[in-house]
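Narrative summary of target 7.
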Amino acid sequence: MADGQAADRNRLIQVSGIITDDEKKPVPHVSVISTRLRRGTVSEVTGIYSLISVPGDTVFVSAMGYKRFFFRVPAEIEGRIYKRDFSLVSDTISIEGVNIFPWKTYDEFKRDVIANQPVLSPEERNMYENLAAIQYYIANTASYRISPEAGYRMAMNQHVDRYVTNQQYPSNNLLNPLAWAKFFSGVKNGLLRNQKAELDKRIKTSKPRKRKSGQD
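Modeled conformation, tokenized:
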């Protein structure tokens, strides 16, 4: 009888089933190991696994992102096939991204940022000054003031330019004599003139002369 029990314990059994997660979706690449035979397998993409075991064996299940799982093959099992489906419990928590900075306080951050201001070259400084002057001129000149009407005119001009130069190279106003004529006319009418200086000049020239004493 003892020989029969020993033979029964050494009887090979095929343990198989489907591994799923909390949402009943198949879990692939799960390690399934027989602790008594020290043999293992990996679940397929469909979650199906198949393992050789013996009665009374303990099967160890492990997968990244899930809690470990154990189950025991019944010692009194009859036949050579044992079906066991089970679900794994998730062992991860999703969190939002975290940015790590080398400063302890906001004051340290502000101090380092101010101390590390880049030194501009004369060319870069002139470029930024010119851009600021252009933005000021656009914002304070009536003829270039941004408005819905100006945006509509610009959109229509662009539409006409695309229609005229369809399947051609776009026109270059540097080679357009009409554009140059318009530019020279604008210069004569004070397009590039310093408005403040002109106003000061007009004020000086418009002041009445003082009469000399003794003249009627």
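The beta strands are 13-20, 31-34, 39-42, 48-53, 58-62, 69-72, 81-83, 86-87.
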